[in-house]
Write a structure and sequence with these properties.
Layout lengths: L1 H10 L2 H22 L8 E4 L13 E9 L4 E8 L10 E5 L8 H7 L3 E4 L10 E4 L9 E5 L9 E2 L6 E3 H18 L8 E6 L6 H11 L10 E7 L5 H6 L1 H7 L5 H11 L9 H14 L22 H9 L1 E2 L12 E2 L3 H11 L2 H7 L17 E3 L6 H9 L3 E7 L7 H10 L4 E10 L2 E9 L4 E6 L6 H4 L1 H12 L5
Parallel strand pairs: 4-7, 4-10, 9-14, 10-11, 11-15, 15-18
Antiparallel strand pairs: 1-2, 2-3, 3-7, 3-8, 5-6, 12-13, 16-17, 17-18
Length: 486
């Protein structure tokens, strides 16, 4: 019966499918609200339009809360976008943004989601304009963007105790979130499930994936149709990640041979915790030499940070310095070309703090004061120091995974990521080779253990890759999720 329903939906016209989508969202929201009358917030809202977007949204968007701790009142906020291809058959991806404490709307608006900020020239005040992003991963997948841990984005706790979190606590709450969300959205319970995220989420994604696998061995429902996970520019092991930074800087020509060789000799290639004075001196000399390099992307300018909302002329002048005019040859002359990517983050901050935007998203009044892209003030304990063993366990269990790096990222260098992948001691199925988009080299890739693990670099990308190379990353994801080699 379920397969017949899926076939019927798949054969409908685009218009009919969109109507069915909105009906289904509204129905799910109503049922969730009735079933969860004890919650402090309605479960979800079907969003058909957004301030700053011209006309109805060309994609289905649902937002809402899921209570993950009743005693402390922890509510995790989410954005759910259905696949534009076939939501009933396409995979379901739970996406987490790094931090810890960064809002998942960063992934939605800056990386893999279906909209982005735009303007004809410099920003001069008012509500920022948003437009559709054609490189969205929702072309081939349903995606739940979750504000996690509590305190990130619009997620909140009703008590002070509930505001405290950690890696392990975040994983426990995300498992509860996913179980409750699927209970309220049974339509997607059989879709292939993937867990994904980038940056600091490299500590959460494999940990959560393994927790879901272990949950499937219990009697708790629903059963998760878990297939694998995705980690971009992932923080994985603090020592390994840091030990790869200096070789990366040398390989990119940012430090001299002499400086590198002295550090290599005195530190024994272990730079994360200098064991002697000479090593410490070498590391400090390298840090002094590269302190003005943009760590997120070594080729891009290191820009000043603009924290405050743009209410005055001086602040708008700063904003203007962070932007360039639209390129005349651009396919869409509304798209801003940012001289500094922090400018787009400022636009996001202005947009997310607008009351009409919050109302459209269904954000509960009085729960979150000023929205921050990354909340650095959360009470959080990073109690997972390495996830290498989690990756190894998941590989042994046969789960699929793709790990990717921007090759100009010095925060989590590709050298570091390749180093811990080698520790897994997996057999190579397809050795190092270029992969292509539109006939051009988009990066390099290697696959392991009968294609269970794929590693890829994204040429010219930084931290995180999809923000710099959206087209290439979308193509990478679409091929991998369909089982096609890069």
């Amino acid at each position: 019966m379920r397969e017949e329903a899926r076939t019927m939906v798949a054969t409908r016209s685009t218009t009919s499918r969109r109507c069915l989508t909105w009906w289904w969202l509204a129905c799910c929201c109503f049922v969730s609200w009735v079933a969860s009358s004890s919650w402090t917030a309605a479960a979800c809202v079907a969003v058909t339009s957004l301030p700053g977007f011209d006309g109805p949204l060309p994609f289905s968007l649902e937002t809402g809360y899921v209570e993950v701790n009743e005693s402390t009142g922890v509510q995790l906020f989410y954005y759910f976008v259905q696949s534009e291809k076939n939501p009933d058959l396409d995979p379901l991806l739970l996406w987490l943004t790094g931090g810890p404490g960064c809002s998942s709307i960063s992934g939605l608006a800056h990386e893999i989601g279906p909209f982005q900020f735009a303007a004809k020239r410099y920003y001069s005040g008012g509500l920022p304009i948003i437009i559709y992003r054609p490189e969205t991963w929702t072309k081939v997948s349903n995606i739940i963007f979750v504000d996690s841990p509590v305190g990130a984005g619009f997620s909140y706790a009703a008590t002070e105790e509930g505001s405290k979190s950690s890696d392990t606590n975040a994983v426990k709450q995300l498992l509860i979130f996913l179980r409750k969300w699927l209970h309220d959205h049974p339509r997607f319970s059989l879709n292939p499930l993937y867990i994904g995220g980038d940056s600091y989420s490299g500590m959460i994604v494999p940990t959560l994936t393994l927790a879901i696998d272990e949950s499937n061995g219990s009697e708790e429902k629903p059963f998760f149709n878990l297939k694998g996970y995705i980690a971009g520019n992932p923080v994985t092991d603090y020592k390994i990640d840091e030990d790869g930074r200096i070789p990366f800087l040398h390989g990119m020509g940012l430090i001299s041979d002499e400086l590198y060789e002295h550090a290599k000799e005195t530190c024994g290639e272990k730079y994360s915790a200098p064991s002697n004075a000479q090593c410490a001196h070498s590391v400090q000399a390298i840090n002094d030499c590269t302190k003005d390099i943009n760590r997120g992307h070594i080729l891009e300018p290191l820009c000043e940070e603009l924290q405050s909302p743009i209410h005055n002329t001086a602040a708008r002048d700063v904003m203007s310095r962070l932007m360039l005019e639209s390129r005349p040859a651009a396919a869409d002359d509304d798209i801003i070309i940012f001289e500094c990517r922090k400018a787009s983050r400022v636009l996001l901050k202005i947009w997310a703090n607008d009351e009409t935007v919050r109302e459209s998203l269904g954000v509960q009044k009085g729960t979150v004061g000023e929205w921050k892209r990354c909340n650095r003030d959360i009470d959080y304990n990073s109690d997972v120091r390495s996830t290498v063993e989690y990756h190894l366990t998941l590989m042994r269990k046969g789960y699929r995974a793709i790990i990717y790096s921007g090759d100009h990222d010095s925060r989590v260098p590709s050298i570091s990521t390749q180093a811990w992948i080698r520790l897994l001691n997996l057999s190579i199925a397809d050795d190092w080779r270029p992969w292509y988009v539109d006939g051009q080299v988009a990066g390099f890739t290697r696959s392991y253990a009968s294609n269970n693990l794929t590693y890829a670099t994204v040429k010219g990308a930084g931290h995180t890759a999809a923000e710099y190379k959206p087209k290439e990353c979308q193509e990478m994801f679409a091929r991998w999720i369909s089982g096609t080699p890069l």
